[in-house]
Write a structure and sequence with these properties.
Length: about 170
């Protein structure tokens, strides 16, 4: 399953030092809000737009609000996966891969940017891609393949479901 990142960039960047923050010896925990949309445009292209935000808090040194976009090429044959009834696995894997790449890039960017700020370097916490909910949109070609794949998967599942043994008299 091959996904090639073609581009990613920040469309909006806001990292603001909290002047009311009092530095403590203990590490600071924060809640990060990650939201966005992944759009499988056609059978060879996917786009991701994502927002990463940390709200202002007296217990946290920075307010962070980042918007980013990523575009990637899908080098797999979606038709091959649809014919096997497993297209949803391919789409899920690509979604997780692309959000992982983008979130890692954002973590690195925030660390680099805050390194010269009053409260020192800060890294966004690690978030597992399966914990990030994204809206998924499918282009018409991909939707047709997804419908085909689901139909095939249901046929496979119905054949592999064990039948109850009948009592013989």
């Amino acid at each position: 399953m091959s996904l090639r990142l073609e581009t990613y960039f920040f469309t909006s960047i806001a990292i603001e030092a909290n002047t009311e923050f009092v530095k403590r010896d203990a590490p600071v925990d924060c809640d990060v809000d990650v939201s966005g949309e992944i759009h499988f445009i056609d059978t060879s292209r996917v786009g991701l737009s994502v927002r990463i935000a940390v709200e202002r808090s007296e217990h946290f040194p920075y307010e962070i609000d980042l918007y980013m976009f990523a575009g990637a090429a899908i080098e797999d044959s979606m038709e091959k996966f649809a014919d096997k009834g497993v297209l949803d696995h391919l789409l899920h894997t690509h979604r997780r891969s692309l959000i992982s790449i983008c979130y890692s890039a954002a973590r690195e960017f925030v660390l680099l940017t805050t390194g010269r700020q009053p409260w020192g370097p800060f890294s966004l916490p690690i978030i597992f891609p399966q914990d990030i909910e994204l809206d998924v949109k499918l282009g018409p070609d991909v939707q047709a393949l997804a419908d085909k794949s689901n139909k095939i998967r249901k046929q496979i599942e119905s054949r592999s479901t064990p039948q109850r043994a009948r009592k013989v008299k």
